[in-house]
Amino acid sequence: MEDIVLQVKDVTIGDKKSGYSIVDKVNIEVKKQQIVGIVGESGCGKSMTSLAIMQLMPVNIAIKEGQILFSGEELTALKEKELRKVRGKDISMIFQEPVRALHPLHKVGKQIEESLKIHTNLSKEDRKKQTISLMKSVGIPDAEMRYDQYPHQLSGGLNQRIMIAMAIAADPSLIIADEPTTALDVTIQAQILQLLRSLRERRGVSIILISHDLAVICENCDYVYVMYCGQIVEEADVRTFFQSPKHPYTQALIQASPDPEKKIDQLMAIKGTVPSIENIPEGCRFAERCPHKTERCTKVEPKLYEQNDGTKVKCFLFEEGR
Ligand SMILES: Nc1ncnc2c1ncn2[C@@H]1O[C@H](COP(=O)(O)OP(=O)(O)OP(=O)(O)O)[C@@H](O)[C@H]1O
Ligand SMILES: [Mg+2]
């Protein structure tokens, strides 16, 4: 038990006004030093799930049910002031577009230092030393000179490294990276992912890596969750996942992708569309697009059935286990 860092337990996230659920009874577990992937089409609820872990959802969105446990402590029960200590110190986030997350008018070095100011007792002088050492550790050349620069003076890749330095400044045990490389070109992408993997080795952090990109998931994760329309439809260790994808949705994703570099949204060879949250059908949410659909699928919702190889699949084809 003690190697479990994060447990998302039966979490449902909904719109306060309309009452519609955006994320439905999601369970996710992250172990120490594990890199866990979340993959799924645009709008399926990946970002909302990760924002819920940090309790940073938009104001109109709330967790309706479920618990989020970090090292056994229930985050959902904490007050805003206590949560502020958790953010950055225990869990930190890296987003897709560093330029939007960084303050345009503050020097990048100072922005990293801010994290140290909030979460450590270091003196001003030591904070600067520590910042420069962090910048070097994430592969920023000429760190002393870069310290005094502004985000617009840095490339996208360097700004993402600044974001990563900020994220690790207070030595968190979990980093949530939401499409951290989507805005970067392929070479820089590979370097940033390599850096994230090295943080797991060097610092023992766990990482949740959210991506549209099956190749990114395949190359970087130990374990993967597939989301479809607000629900987890399959979870498996990454090798089993790519060797024997089980859910018809997952199979379609992988088979429709002769080129693993392709992003999910570019290869939607699967007929039909994702139901909208105002119009969730009874039964399986994928049924309308599923080649194996039976009448039962349109009436009864399947559970996540555990298989002999440890995979869990939300589909009646796997009800008896395989
Ligand atoms: N502020 C909001 N108010 C109401 N609904 C929202 C809000 N933000 C997002 N949603 C809805 O929540 C659902 C999940 O969105 P989310 O951003 O988590 O998807 P995602 O899987 O991260 O997609 P992407 O891959 O495009 O980043 C979507 O249907 C979206 O329309
Ligand atoms: Mg998102």
UniProtKB/TrEMBL annotation:
Main location group: membrane
InterPro entries in UniProt: AAA+_ATPase, ABC_Ni/Peptide_Import, ABC_transporter-like_ATP-bd, Oligopep_ABC_C, P-loop_NTPase
Residues in ABC transporter domain copies: 6-254
UniProt keyword list: ATP-binding, Cell membrane, Membrane, Nucleotide-binding, Transport
Family per similarity comment: Belongs to the ABC transporter superfamily.
Name this protein carries in UniProt: Peptide ABC transporter ATP-binding protein
CDD domains listed in its UniProt record: ABC_NikE_OppD_transporters (cd03257)
Localization in the cell: Cell membrane
GO molecular function, one term: ATP hydrolysis activity
One Pfam family recorded for the sequence: oligo_HPY
